[in-house]
Amino acid sequence: MNMSEHSQKYHVVVIGAGSTGAAVAHDLALRGFKVTVLERGEIASGTTGRNHCLLHSGGRYCVKDQESAVECIEENMILRKIMPEAMELNGGLFVAVNDEDMAYKQSFIEGCEATGIPYKELNASEARRREPYLSEKTLGAVWVPDGVFEPMRMCMSFLASAKQNGAMVRPYVEVTGLQVEDQRVVAVEVWDRISGEESVIHADLVVNAAGPWAGMITDMAGVDVPVVATPGVMVSMTGRYCQLVVNRLNVSSDGDIVVPQRETSIIGTSSWTVEDADYIEMPEDHIQMMYDRGSEMMPILREVEPRGIFAVARPLIGRIGEDEREIARTFKCFDHADRDGVEGFVTIAGGKTTTARAMAEGTVDVVCAKLDLEIPCATKETQLLSYRAYYTI
After folding, report:
1. What is the Cα–Cα distance from 269 to 232, expressed in whole angstroms?
2. Are 257 and 247 in contact (CB under 8 A)?
3. Does 373 score more than 90 pLDDT?
4. How many helices (H) and strands (E) would you count in the chain?
5. Pairwise CA distance, residues 133 & 297, whole Å
6. Nearest 10 degrees: CA dihedral of 152, 157, 160, 161?
7. How does pLDDT run across 142-156, given as a tens digit for each residue?
8. Does residue 41 have a pLDDT over 50?
9. What is the DSSP string of 147-167?
10. What percent of the chain is modeled with pLDDT above 90?
11. Is 381 exposed, middle or buried (0-12, 13-18, 19+ CB in 10 A)?
């Protein structure tokens, strides 16, 4: 039986207002739920707001992690339609600068074909015509539909649409505890960081979308989730030296991508694991690696000054001690009733900003199933409001 008319009686609290939490709020509100979003800082102030802004085509994963590649290209095409104001749909090049890269090209093309990623082969002169700052050693390239997004605008578009459907968004409100009664999460304890007020928000269900901080939230309910905080160093160079996203045509590695973002060029990224996503010490050798590897593709990057050096933790599904480069970039929704015997509580983790909408769809499907509701997802076809509407609704 279709029970969408009954969803309004359920209040769902979403913890986190990065891309995943914002997308979950939009999907929940679109399906008729009462929604409150809690974010301890500004919108997109965590992982989403400090990544390298790549709208993935899936090319980085099409050889070794094809499940993630399929997720990326499918969501890339959906986001182009529903969120055009937050995107620069410029495309990307996977560039070969040595014989090893050229040898990898056939595996890359086979991966694109296997995962449905559109591509076009370019010779060296064609590639350098498109991107004059590419190395003179460039041997060839493959074009794919990469793009660039504005992280805060993406989140604000999701949240503006959620607010239009009745959601309440509360930035600068930190979760300090979860109230559990009879093995069920029934309320969220919060601290308003502006007013200093402490309060309790009752909920029928809580969605933990806190990214690499998800473990801090699950600890409050006495349960565990296999999320590894995996930082990466990025260096934002002063000046925009490519119009397309430039990737190394080889197995994903450190410093093998340059993303144009407004008037900067972001070189990224490295990878390691930390215990606490709030305290990331950036290794000096990782910073140097960004300059060294990025300039192999674009030598001019050795000649310009950095505008900023930063790091952010990815919320990968795995355990400390695993090789972080081998952890899949796919996502999973954890129902803590099935997993830990605690009702009214789910965690969404993993994935990419590119796949936030799909992560939200899977999460809200779990919410509906738990509440015995049959409400189809409509976010694939629903045009999002402009990010500007976030401040006027």
Report:
1. 5
2. yes
3. yes
4. 9, 20
5. 9
6. -150
7. 999 999 999 999 999
8. yes
9. EEE-HHHHHHHHHHHHHHTT-
10. 89
11. exposed
DSSP assignment of 277-336 equals: TT--PPPHHHHHHHHHHHHHH-GGGGTS-EEEEEEEEEEEES-TTS-GGGS---EEEEEH
- What structural domains does the chain harbor? 11-53+150-226+318-393 (3.50.50.60), 91-147+229-316 (3.30.9.10)
Q: Which amino acid is at 274?
A: V
| Order of strands across the sheet that contains 34-39 | 168-171, 34-39, 11-15, 205-208, 345-350, 331-335
Residue 357, SS3? Answer: helix
Region 200-226 average pLDDT? 96
| Residue with the two structure tokens 């969408």 | 4
Using DSSP bridges, classify how beta strands 54-55 and 147-149 pair: parallel, antiparallel or unpaired: antiparallel
Mean pLDDT, the chain, rounded, equals 94
Q: What confidence score (pLDDT) does residue 236 get?
A: 96
3-state secondary structure 55-75: ECCCHHHCCCCHHHHHHHHHH
* Length of the chain (residues): 393
- To the nearest 10 degrees (0 to 180), the angle between helices 19-30 and 356-370 is 50
The Cα 190–Cα 321 span in angstroms is: 33
- Residue 171 identity (one-letter amino acid): P
Please give the average per-residue pLDDT across 219-234, as a whole number.
Answer: 94
User: If you compute the radius of gyration of the chain from its CA atoms, what whole number of angstroms results?
Assistant: 21
pLDDT at 4: 55
- Helix (H) or strand (E) segment spanning residue 339: helix 336-340
Q: Report the amino acid identity of residue 170.
A: R
Q: Which two tokens stand for residue 168?
A: 């309440």
Residue recorded with tokens 């925009």: 240
CA dist., res. 102 & res. 9, Å (int): 58
DSSP 64-115: T-HHHHHHHHHHHHHHHHH-GGGEE---EEEEE-SHHHHHHHHHHHHHHHHH
